[in-house]
Design goal:
two-stranded parallel sheet; 6 strands; mainly alpha; 480 residues
Length: 480
């Protein structure tokens, strides 16, 4: 089969070259975008007088027939056509004759593929935004039920301070919110239409590029033809955005894996989203979360792959850029199914609130509250209060108790002894108060009170968490 570009060549292409050179096996994914671009391009050719109305009608009807054939899996993709653009153009010409051969006037495969690929990225950008919105909404629905559910907040994976499970879930949502905002920014950065740039230098036909851009959903035509066909920033943007999405998903998955272990037992996965062992009958493995964590690596690899491909290319189009699509197709597919399955698995999670509460009585989570109490009630400098509280932790451990479990009167006596030592070693001008109010100290040692006291903006106090949830839900309404 002769190539559509073969006029300058005496010999047919080697079959091995056909296999090596062709992008059709994967870029046929762009068929819908290619037909869309061709339909609008044909209308533009008619508007500038390069097509008769009968030719425009033939092209339009022919492309619609091809669309239906592809949808019905009746279209024959031939590797000799190299890519989706040539495949559709040949099929169109075979259907309608000479009018089909006029369609490629005033464009090149260079701007054609840039358009198709950009349309694809923009379409899936919107799909990813919708999927992330659904995920955030699912998490927020769970968070609203747990604004008072105590759990240990951790740093360095060590018990730190008491928080609510709802508060932790809202923290998940904040990263996902930024993911959507990055996708929104990428849409703005890719709002220029490359069609009409031709090979690299524009055309002599007077293409109505601004109108063409608007008809294809862009705000304006690209400003420089060479840059327009030779850049893949929009593809790198979606690869980076997906990498960040998967980073956040992976961190969430890691916590779900930990929380579903017997050591934590904070959550249990539904049987519908867990697997068993081929040898150990008792096992219920969090394979969904583990795969989510694992698939993150391939999205990083796809980003690095295209960055490496693009890094040393001279300007305008180069054949290397054919390698831009498979990595994007793979990352889009990976991210889409990952968001969907995470959303569904979260909906069916079982939350073990009692275990979360019990774990708050390990690790002396109220220690910072005690230090703050000494600062506020006894006028002790924080660094000294920090030291005294550390001795209280040692005292509690000597009794095999959590600090929150020590009797308040007993702890008050212990504190007063240390305050006396501090007063003897402190300047007489320092107005340290020695008397400890046992009732106030008892309140300070309460895990519930500790969580609720943190009522600064963005804190874990229940009312503050509800504000954060309301703010996120309002934001979701605004963007959807």
């Amino acid at each position: 089969m002769a190539k559509l570009w073969a006029g300058r060549f005496q010999n047919d292409a080697n079959e091995l070259l056909d296999e090596f050179n062709a992008s059709l096996p994967f870029d046929k994914n762009l068929w819908e975008e290619d037909i869309k671009g061709s339909l609008e391009h044909a209308k533009m050719l008619y508007s500038i007088g390069l097509l008769e109305i009968s030719e425009l009608d033939s092209i339009t009807n022919g492309l619609e027939e091809i669309k239906q054939e592809i949808l019905q899996d009746k279209f024959e993709f031939c590797i000799e056509d190299e890519d989706i653009h040539m495949s559709i153009e040949r099929a169109l010409s075979n259907k309608i004759g000479n009018a089909g051969k006029k369609l490629h006037t005033a464009r090149s495969r260079n701007d054609q593929v840039a358009l198709d690929f950009k349309l694809y990225c923009r379409k899936h950008n919107a799909i990813l935004q919708r999927l992330l919105s659904e995920l955030i909404s699912t998490i927020l629905n769970m968070a609203k039920q747990h604004t008072n559910t105590l759990m240990p907040g951790m740093t360095h994976l060590q018990h730190a301070q008491p928080i609510s499970f709802g508060y932790h879930l809202v923290a998940w949502c904040m990263g996902l919110k930024r993911d959507i905002e990055r996708l929104q920014c990428s849409i703005k950065l890719s709002d220029d239409c490359p069609l009409g740039s031709a090979a690299l230098a524009g055309t002599p036909y007077g293409n109505e590029r601004d109108n063409l851009a608007l008809s294809l959903g862009f705000k304006y035509a690209s400003a420089n033809a060479m840059d327009s066909v030779g850049q893949r920033d929009f593809a790198l943007d979606i690869l980076y955005n997906i990498s960040m999405i998967m980073l956040h998903i992976s961190r969430m998955a890691e916590e779900l894996i930990l929380w579903s272990s017997y050591e934590f037992k904070f959550v249990s996965f539904s049987d519908s989203f867990a697997t068993g062992s081929s040898i150990m009958p008792q096992k219920k493995n969090p394979d969904v979360a583990e795969l989510l964590r694992g698939k993150t690596g391939r999205t990083y690899g796809n980003l690095i792959s295209l960055l490496t491909t693009m890094k040393a290319l001279p300007f305008a189009y180069n054949k290397d850029m054919q390698e831009d699509k498979e990595c994007v197709f793979d990352s889009v597919k990976t991210a889409s199914i990952s968001i969907k399955i995470l959303t569904e698995s979260i909906k069916t999670l079982t939350i073990h609130t009692e275990n979360m509460r019990n774990m708050c009585e390990k690790g002396h989570l109220v220690a910072t509250d005690l230090a703050d109490f000494l600062v506020q009630e006894c006028n002790i400098a924080f660094r000294e209060a920090h030291h005294i509280t550390g001795t209280c932790v040692q005292y509690a451990e000597s009794k095999k108790l959590d600090l929150s479990q020590v009797d308040s009167k007993e702890l008050a006596n212990f504190l007063q002894n240390h305050i006396e030592v501090l007063m003897r070693n402190t300047d007489s001008n320092t107005n340290i108060k020695m008397q400890i109010d046992c009732n106030k100290l008892h309140e300070v040692l309460s895990i519930e009170n500790s969580m609720q006291r943190r009522n600064s903006a963005g804190g874990c106090n229940s009312d503050e968490v509800k504000k954060q949830i309301n703010s996120l839900e309002q934001w979701l309404c605004e963007i959807n």
